[in-house]
Specification:
With about 210 residues, the chain is of the alpha/beta class. Helices cover about 50% and strands about 15% of the residues. Helix 9 links the parallel strand 6 and strand 7. The C terminus is likely disordered.
Protein backbone atom coordinates (compact mmCIF):
# COMPACT_ATOMS: atom_id res chain seq x y z
CA UNK A 1 0.00 0.00 0.00
CA UNK A 2 2.64 2.50 1.09
CA UNK A 3 5.02 1.26 -1.59
CA UNK A 4 3.94 0.56 -5.17
CA UNK A 5 5.36 -2.97 -5.22
CA UNK A 6 5.62 -5.89 -2.84
CA UNK A 7 8.93 -5.64 -0.98
CA UNK A 8 9.42 -9.39 -0.74
CA UNK A 9 8.89 -9.71 -4.50
CA UNK A 10 11.53 -7.05 -5.15
CA UNK A 11 13.94 -8.89 -2.86
CA UNK A 12 13.17 -12.23 -4.49
CA UNK A 13 13.71 -10.80 -7.98
CA UNK A 14 17.12 -9.49 -6.93
CA UNK A 15 18.00 -13.05 -5.91
CA UNK A 16 16.67 -14.67 -9.08
CA UNK A 17 13.56 -16.11 -7.40
CA UNK A 18 11.03 -13.54 -8.52
CA UNK A 19 8.37 -15.61 -10.28
CA UNK A 20 8.33 -18.38 -7.71
CA UNK A 21 7.91 -15.99 -4.79
CA UNK A 22 5.43 -13.70 -6.59
CA UNK A 23 3.06 -16.65 -7.00
CA UNK A 24 3.00 -17.13 -3.23
CA UNK A 25 2.58 -13.39 -2.66
CA UNK A 26 -0.47 -13.34 -4.90
CA UNK A 27 -2.02 -16.22 -2.96
CA UNK A 28 -1.49 -14.35 0.30
CA UNK A 29 -2.84 -11.04 -1.01
CA UNK A 30 -5.92 -12.69 -2.51
CA UNK A 31 -6.59 -14.60 0.71
CA UNK A 32 -6.19 -17.98 -0.99
CA UNK A 33 -3.75 -19.35 1.59
CA UNK A 34 -2.92 -18.74 5.23
CA UNK A 35 -0.47 -15.89 5.54
CA UNK A 36 1.92 -17.80 7.79
CA UNK A 37 2.18 -20.57 5.18
CA UNK A 38 2.92 -18.10 2.41
CA UNK A 39 5.48 -16.25 4.53
CA UNK A 40 7.33 -19.41 5.50
CA UNK A 41 7.28 -20.72 1.92
CA UNK A 42 8.64 -17.49 0.45
CA UNK A 43 11.42 -17.16 3.00
CA UNK A 44 12.36 -20.82 2.54
CA UNK A 45 12.77 -20.09 -1.17
CA UNK A 46 14.96 -17.00 -0.88
CA UNK A 47 16.66 -17.35 2.56
CA UNK A 48 18.08 -13.82 2.30
CA UNK A 49 21.19 -12.77 4.18
CA UNK A 50 21.48 -9.35 5.77
CA UNK A 51 24.02 -8.33 3.11
CA UNK A 52 21.70 -9.42 0.28
CA UNK A 53 18.81 -7.38 1.69
CA UNK A 54 21.00 -4.31 2.13
CA UNK A 55 22.31 -4.66 -1.44
CA UNK A 56 18.76 -5.00 -2.77
CA UNK A 57 17.68 -1.82 -0.99
CA UNK A 58 20.77 -0.01 -2.24
CA UNK A 59 20.36 -1.15 -5.84
CA UNK A 60 16.56 -0.82 -6.04
CA UNK A 61 15.20 1.45 -3.27
CA UNK A 62 11.52 0.80 -2.59
CA UNK A 63 9.24 3.37 -4.23
CA UNK A 64 6.42 4.95 -2.24
CA UNK A 65 2.98 5.02 -3.81
CA UNK A 66 2.15 8.39 -5.38
CA UNK A 67 0.66 10.80 -2.86
CA UNK A 68 1.11 8.66 0.26
CA UNK A 69 3.78 11.05 1.55
CA UNK A 70 1.33 13.96 1.33
CA UNK A 71 -1.38 11.99 3.12
CA UNK A 72 0.96 11.07 5.97
CA UNK A 73 2.20 14.67 6.18
CA UNK A 74 -1.40 15.90 6.43
CA UNK A 75 -2.20 13.39 9.16
CA UNK A 76 0.97 14.28 11.07
CA UNK A 77 0.13 17.99 10.77
CA UNK A 78 -3.22 17.51 12.47
CA UNK A 79 -1.74 15.30 15.20
CA UNK A 80 -3.13 11.99 13.96
CA UNK A 81 -0.88 9.04 14.75
CA UNK A 82 0.17 6.93 11.76
CA UNK A 83 1.20 3.28 11.97
CA UNK A 84 2.56 0.83 9.43
CA UNK A 85 1.11 -2.67 9.88
CA UNK A 86 2.71 -4.93 7.33
CA UNK A 87 3.29 -8.54 6.50
CA UNK A 88 6.59 -7.39 5.01
CA UNK A 89 9.95 -7.12 6.70
CA UNK A 90 10.96 -4.54 9.26
CA UNK A 91 14.48 -4.27 7.83
CA UNK A 92 12.99 -3.15 4.49
CA UNK A 93 10.15 -1.02 5.88
CA UNK A 94 12.13 1.11 8.33
CA UNK A 95 13.89 3.19 5.62
CA UNK A 96 10.51 3.88 3.97
CA UNK A 97 8.96 4.87 7.30
CA UNK A 98 11.85 7.23 8.00
CA UNK A 99 11.44 8.89 4.60
CA UNK A 100 7.75 9.65 5.21
CA UNK A 101 8.16 10.59 8.88
CA UNK A 102 6.61 7.57 10.57
CA UNK A 103 8.26 6.58 13.84
CA UNK A 104 10.12 3.27 14.00
CA UNK A 105 8.10 2.49 17.14
CA UNK A 106 4.92 2.73 15.04
CA UNK A 107 5.88 -0.18 12.78
CA UNK A 108 4.32 -3.62 13.14
CA UNK A 109 6.09 -5.93 10.70
CA UNK A 110 8.02 -9.16 10.45
CA UNK A 111 11.54 -9.55 11.74
CA UNK A 112 14.01 -11.65 9.78
CA UNK A 113 16.53 -13.39 12.01
CA UNK A 114 20.22 -13.68 11.13
CA UNK A 115 23.07 -15.64 12.63
CA UNK A 116 26.29 -13.97 13.81
CA UNK A 117 27.62 -14.01 10.25
CA UNK A 118 24.52 -12.33 8.84
CA UNK A 119 23.12 -15.46 7.22
CA UNK A 120 19.38 -16.12 7.17
CA UNK A 121 18.25 -17.89 10.34
CA UNK A 122 14.46 -17.77 10.14
CA UNK A 123 11.87 -15.23 11.22
CA UNK A 124 10.35 -14.15 14.51
CA UNK A 125 7.06 -16.06 14.85
CA UNK A 126 6.12 -13.88 17.84
CA UNK A 127 5.45 -10.87 15.62
CA UNK A 128 1.66 -10.54 15.29
CA UNK A 129 1.94 -9.96 11.53
CA UNK A 130 3.74 -13.29 10.98
CA UNK A 131 0.45 -15.22 10.99
CA UNK A 132 -3.03 -15.07 9.51
CA UNK A 133 -5.28 -12.58 11.35
CA UNK A 134 -2.10 -10.85 12.52
CA UNK A 135 -3.18 -7.41 11.39
CA UNK A 136 -6.36 -7.34 13.51
CA UNK A 137 -4.22 -8.52 16.40
CA UNK A 138 -1.81 -5.62 15.83
CA UNK A 139 -4.67 -3.10 15.60
CA UNK A 140 -6.12 -4.49 18.82
CA UNK A 141 -2.78 -4.08 20.58
CA UNK A 142 -2.48 -0.50 19.34
CA UNK A 143 -5.98 0.41 20.51
CA UNK A 144 -5.48 -1.23 23.90
CA UNK A 145 -2.11 0.39 24.50
CA UNK A 146 -3.00 3.91 23.40
CA UNK A 147 -6.72 4.06 24.08
CA UNK A 148 -7.69 5.15 20.57
CA UNK A 149 -11.45 5.26 20.05
CA UNK A 150 -11.26 5.38 16.25
CA UNK A 151 -8.79 3.59 13.99
CA UNK A 152 -8.90 3.52 10.19
CA UNK A 153 -7.12 0.74 8.33
CA UNK A 154 -5.96 1.46 4.78
CA UNK A 155 -4.75 -1.39 2.60
CA UNK A 156 -4.88 -3.25 -0.68
CA UNK A 157 -5.00 -6.89 0.38
CA UNK A 158 -7.24 -9.43 2.06
CA UNK A 159 -5.11 -9.40 5.21
CA UNK A 160 -5.67 -5.63 5.50
CA UNK A 161 -9.42 -6.11 5.23
CA UNK A 162 -9.23 -8.60 8.12
CA UNK A 163 -8.26 -5.73 10.43
CA UNK A 164 -11.88 -4.52 10.67
CA UNK A 165 -12.76 -5.17 13.42
CA UNK A 166 -11.08 -4.07 15.65
CA UNK A 167 -10.40 -1.20 13.22
CA UNK A 168 -13.50 0.96 13.01
CA UNK A 169 -13.32 1.32 9.24
CA UNK A 170 -11.43 -0.20 6.32
CA UNK A 171 -10.42 1.90 3.32
CA UNK A 172 -9.49 -0.24 0.34
CA UNK A 173 -6.67 1.01 -1.88
CA UNK A 174 -6.55 0.04 -5.55
CA UNK A 175 -3.67 2.16 -6.78
CA UNK A 176 -1.34 -0.82 -7.20
CA UNK A 177 -3.84 -3.60 -7.89
CA UNK A 178 -7.63 -3.78 -7.75
CA UNK A 179 -8.71 -6.92 -5.92
CA UNK A 180 -12.43 -7.66 -6.12
CA UNK A 181 -12.70 -8.93 -2.55
CA UNK A 182 -10.99 -5.82 -1.19
CA UNK A 183 -13.10 -3.46 -3.31
CA UNK A 184 -16.32 -5.19 -2.33
CA UNK A 185 -15.45 -5.46 1.36
CA UNK A 186 -14.16 -1.92 1.87
CA UNK A 187 -16.11 0.82 3.60
CA UNK A 188 -14.57 3.15 1.03
CA UNK A 189 -12.46 2.25 -2.00
CA UNK A 190 -9.95 4.61 -3.60
CA UNK A 191 -7.39 4.33 -6.39
CA UNK A 192 -5.17 7.17 -5.21
CA UNK A 193 -4.34 8.91 -1.96
CA UNK A 194 -5.28 12.43 -3.07
CA UNK A 195 -8.96 12.03 -2.15
CA UNK A 196 -8.02 10.97 1.37
CA UNK A 197 -5.56 13.84 1.73
CA UNK A 198 -8.22 16.32 0.62
CA UNK A 199 -10.64 15.03 3.24
CA UNK A 200 -8.00 15.17 5.98
CA UNK A 201 -7.12 18.75 5.05
CA UNK A 202 -10.75 19.87 4.75
CA UNK A 203 -11.67 18.24 8.04
CA UNK A 204 -8.88 20.16 9.72
CA UNK A 205 -10.12 23.43 8.22
CA UNK A 206 -13.70 22.83 9.40
CA UNK A 207 -12.48 21.97 12.87
CA UNK A 208 -10.51 25.24 13.07
CA UNK A 209 -13.54 27.24 11.85
CA UNK A 210 -15.75 25.67 14.49
Amino acid sequence: TVIDEEGIDVLAASLGKGEEVAAWTLKAMEGDTKFEDALAARLAIIQPSRAQIEKCLSDTPLRTSPGVDKLIAALNARGTDVYFISGGFRIMIEPVAKAVMVSKSNIFANTILFDEDGNYAGFDANEPTSADMGKPKAVGQIKAEHGYETVFMVGDGATDMQAKPPANSFIGYGGVAVRDAVRDGACWFVKDFDAMTEIVNNFGERKLKN
